[in-house]
Amino acid sequence: MGWFWADTAPAAPVARVAPHPTMPRDNAQPPPACPMHNKMPPPSGKAEPPSTPAGACPYVPPDQASNAPASTTTEPEPAQNTGLLSRLNPLNNMFFNLSNERASHQTQDLPLSREQSTIPKADGSLWEYPSPQQMYNAMLRKGYTDTPVDAVESMVSVHNFLNEGAWAEIMGWERRFSRGILEGYSICKRGEENANKTLGTAEDPFDTTTWTDKAVPPPKLLRFTGRPTEMTPKAQIMQWAAWGWPGKFASPPPFDRHDWFVERCNEKGCEEVRYVIDYYEGEPEPTGEPVFYLDVRPAIDGPRGAAERLVRWGTDTWWTATGGVVRELKKAEAERKKREDEIAAQSRQYN
């Protein structure tokens, strides 16, 4: 899901997002709804009109890794020479200008408006999703001339939803660990359900905006890059397990991968944290609605990333395996009975 998309009038069924991957596909190619991960054809030299405002976040070609600075408040202007790299935005490795004009053979109009995401940039503004018209033009530019025009808005809706889902997962990690491993452990030690209650997100664990820590600024997405041809170590291990024990671990590979670089701040200052995202396609609903699964976690670039993953997943597993939920219920029942006994004792004194 390499584009950041918006949808002014959603025409697609809503896809579900879950952190644990299962999918029926038997190869690592994007599904038909996501035909944007082939390599770009060489630039034709014909300049497109500069109709895209700064801040667009479209698909990142896998062969153009981003090495942009950790934070920037304004996006640089493209150089005047004709080199490919000079025409790419270093925050997302896409062309600075994406045409928002109707294609010559287009059979119907597409919305031109762009919507803001809920994802903050380094300067505090919000990343924007390209319009359906920009998406269609970009797909034509990549050679997908058979894309049905009436399906573009649906594709935009799915892409928008998946990017919001990925950010919601990242927010969940940041709420737990922005202040460090020890603070994260104190939040996670009683399992995921109790952690969400502590964080105030029990009603909506996939909330993309709630940030209750007034002393620490919320995270920001600095830049991102798509790497659909590079399987993450976890995804590769799952494929080996599926090969060795197909009855137990059968799981086709993800159809896409992203790396998102997030600014994390606390009392000690700000730093950059890399997250890896695997995108899986699940079995569609009986009604035909698509189902996607996201596996979002901090990259293991050092001991901290490994510790965060171990703390969050390990504590939840331990809490469940040792009957933590049952202990909580018994404790609540004992407290309820104690209160009833106290009320009954006071009633007898008055009698």
Automatic annotation (TrEMBL):
The keyword Kinase does not apply. Residues 1-83, 330-351 are annotated as: Disordered. Pfam families: Cyto_heme_lyase (PF01265). Residues 330-342 have a biased composition (Basic and acidic residues). Its main location: mitochondrion. Residues 9-20 have a biased composition (Low complexity). Residues 29-44 have a biased composition (Pro residues). It catalyses: holo-[cytochrome c] = apo-[cytochrome c] + heme b. Its EC number is 4.4.1.17. One of its GO terms (cellular component) is mitochondrial inner membrane. It is found in: Mitochondrion inner membrane. This is Holocytochrome c-type synthase. The lineage of its organism: Eukaryota, Fungi, Dikarya, Ascomycota, Pezizomycotina.
